[in-house]
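>> received
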Amino acid sequence: MIYLNFTDLNEETQERLLASSKEDVKHKYGKDIMDNATKHNTSLDKMLDEEALRNLYSYTYVFNI
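>> returned
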């Protein structure tokens, strides 16, 4: 679970969440993403960013107001 203040949704927080998600994706699917990027001749960073955005939807958020 990720705990956030309702007023704490600025750009810095969004980037922190995205960076955390990117690390999760690297840890869970790193080898598969690298193989897929090589196979389809695409940028590894681009694929990681796309998967990190998708991964954000799997988190549970708790907002403190």
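>> The first helix runs from residue 11 to 39.
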